[in-house]
Amino acid sequence: MVALAAKSATSTIPIVFSIASDPMKIGLAKSLARPGGNATGIAMMTATLTLKRLELIRELLPQNATVGFLINPENQDSLLEIEDVARSTGQSLVVAKARNVDDLEPAFVQLVSTQVSAVLVSNDALFVSLRVQLVALAKRHSLPATYEFREFPAVGGLMSYGPSLAKNSQKVGTYAALILQGAQPSDLPIQQPTAFELVINLSAARSLGIQIPPSLLLRADEVIE
Prior knowledge:
By secondary structure, the chain is an alpha/beta fold. It folds into two domains: 2-44 and 163-187, Response regulator (Rossmann fold, 3-Layer(aba) Sandwich), CATH 3.40.50; 48-161 and 197-224, Rossmann fold (3-Layer(aba) Sandwich). It has helices at residues 2-9, 50-58, 76-89, 104-113, 125-129, 131-140, 165-180, 202-207, 214-219; strands spanning 15-19, 39-43, 67-71, 94-97, 118-121, 145-147, 159-162, 197-201, 222-224. The strands form two sheets. The chain has a seven-stranded mixed sheet with strand order 4-3-5-6-7-8-9, sandwiched between helices. The protein has a two-stranded parallel sheet with strand order 1-2.
């Protein structure tokens, strides 16, 4: 993780991060209110949203449908997400792994071969950077997929539920400006998202032959035609 690597390299240069992890668990901060070191920023803690995303995608599927998970095994948060979902649902999970772009196609082939009805793509910087390829693979394999951020349905993905990357980036910029003006990272509380967006791409749904329930559309913050 970049934030941890930066913190291990210096204890004096201020660090402003945006991470998915719990910063206390991984040793970046003593607490959210008072980080206590040279690092502060935004903790999205997106693993807590995985169950919600699973519930949302299940509204589009038959009752006993199996949902697969695409994770980057190098990402500890992804592994924790899977453990939390398995513990909460009591279900065995179909997990496909991708460490790089070359792993994506075999991962989707695995998911299709195990006859999953949909795939939940975990939050990972690699997947965000490869969102165009991921969305294209899901479409090619006729596999409904749900993602964390709006950036995925914006390029043709089916749906997303999570915090706004743009708003979090603005907060990181604000903290960087405050530090440049003399504020200490140790005194700036680590922020967490307070709002989450449900985004649905109707064009993607139609291409998959999926009828989005009106109740789900009414809950959507944005519907992309």
